[in-house]
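Contributing: when you submit paired examples, paste them exactly as shown. First protein:
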Amino acid sequence: MTTRTFHRPLLAVALCGAMTVALPSLTASAGSSRTADERVDGSSGIGDPYWPLDGNGGIDVASYTISNRYALATKRLSGRTSVRLTATDDLTSFSLDFLLRVSKVTVDGASATFDRTDGGHELRIAPAEPLAAGTEHTVVVRYADHPAKYSYAGERNWLASKREVVTMNEPHMAPWWFPSNDHPLDKAIVDVRIQVPNGREVISNGKLVGRKVRKASTTWHWRADEPMVPYLAFFAAGDFTIARGRHQGLPWLVAVSQRLSKGDQRASMRLMKKTPAIVAGLEKDLGDYPFSVVGGITTGLNPGFALENQTRPTYPAVGGSYTSLVVHELAHQWFGDDIAVQGWRDIWLNEGFATFMEWRWTETHRGRSAARILRSYYDNVPSTSDFWRVTVADPGATKVFDGAIYGRGAMTLQALRNRVGDATFWKIVRTWIREQRGGNGSTEEFEELAGRVTGQDLGSFFTAWLRTPSKPAMTADNGLS
């Protein structure tokens, strides 16, 4: 998913532990018909224990049509979002995750009452008529506010100057700029229109559909072809240099902020233009790239991390040679974007795979083998290090982006490769991608698949690597002999 730090030193890795969480199904119960007394208020969360208010019960979103205006000088955002959703229960009310001040809400064209609950993170909506399970509805929310005023879960995620803005963060970003069902379990199509002063550019996910130029402003229209998790939707506005092309049939578009120095602009554009070739290299191991377009953007702001926004990752200025960072974020297009986590405790499936693909890139480009990198970690991190004290399969909300999730996640995969052999390992990876494509994946599902493909009992292996907060023993069973 996201690379939280650019220099991941050997000792800055950690392990995440996996546990099963029963998250509610987003499938409507066919034929449900409750009396007025039996109708419910959709829950304020989807059921993830790490962030109980993330997502919402009783709804399944199909699409977001976002039409926003952003004033760079005042950092004020205003607009409307149309949310097309299906009720998955008989509802008297439901919630969307949103932080900004709302002026009006309609459901199917009729005014709905609304209020704030749970510290302002939940926009509770009561339609004029109850919603029946299995029925589709269009919810329109109008709003205007200054996103930088707001925080949630200890995060203040609005990243902006008076010349540039970029909406990039994880695990939360959407509630600062559009109302959403903000959890990886509910992917949806995202269509984005952003109006900015003339002369400014807007970059977002997917394809540039068009621009509408008025006397003083321009509206940029972007649309992604494939559903995405809400935090992966983004826009950046400011002064950008844009380059585009086609590589082996895949359209690409990259952008670099003109707020950077001339030298940084040149170096960043060199790095961004590596994107299509890196995708082609990853496809040799992972199969076809999962989306219809690809790209990247380098911001002139200082986020302190890069993020795998779907189809177009965002990066800080790191120079022209930091290929491994681009490999990491593009590997996330398979692991984290196309296959999202079932719950946030499964984060190692994103970060471990993306980090492992960095190691794989190194070994296929005249560097150390992934097996040697694994041994270097193992041999140089003492058993007393905090690196080994994280439970990779269930790290807890405060540890989801601990360095160990990246490092120990990648170690787990290379150790599995050592244990089962190269050909079988890549069969596991390709099967995982094929079976989970477009959906969500959990640690338990990956373990089951690995056992099924190999015909081996890998329980003790995964227990040692993913569920034990201590250094695995140097044994063949653990892929370390």
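Second protein:
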Amino acid sequence: MAPSAPTTPRSVGDILGALDDLAAKNESVSAGQVLQTFGTRTFGPAIMVPALLEITPIGAIPGVPTFLAVVVILVAAQKMIGRKTLWLPGIIANRCVSGEKLGKSADELRPIARFMDRHFHGRWKRITRAPFSQIAAGMVCLLCLTVPFLEVLPFASSVPMLAIAGFGLAVLVRDGVLMVAALAASMIALGFGLDYWNGGMSDTEQTDGMVSEETMDAAKEKAEEAGDAVRKASESAAEAVKGE
């Protein structure tokens, strides 16, 4: 099926509507198809979609939060260095999720989408432009680095991903107030991640038996794998830029 013309979303509802269309027309949907749907110049949805999917049942699949974090960090890094168009390496662009799962996840996000679209709109627009948007992209990259460590705790990786979704929405609707709120939330998420990294959470009764040497080793292994994927993708991106 030939790809349709890119859709420029104006709201979270528009994003979910486009994902529903993709899910209805395809048995499986790749990351590359999602990128083509919104266009390679639209950074907001490219950051928001993986972050929102992480808080759905898709994000409960082992390894998926880390993969989604890799996608986000690649997008955010390109935003941070000022690229005008998005690019994803084939190893990520060709990864797929079933259309049925994607459709169900989009449906489950509808209440969140209605809340976001009702409360967030263009305010303090100057803060959503460069260089502030590039600083925000750097913060998104830092948040993504905490995801592999938090993934071993149920729902913990959703904390940084919600902050990331806030940054993506702020860029999408040009809402500087939301950008500031996302920055505050990111500080909390980073503190959460650092506390876990330092072993602070393992000393609390609430996480007794959940955080162990084995889970820490597993988290570190995932982080190393994510780092390797980002490094290889960055090298491929550099080669692609040289070839342009």
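If you have annotations for the second protein, write them as plain sentences, like these:
Residues 12 and 115 are 9 Å apart (CA to CA).
Residues 12-221 form one domain.
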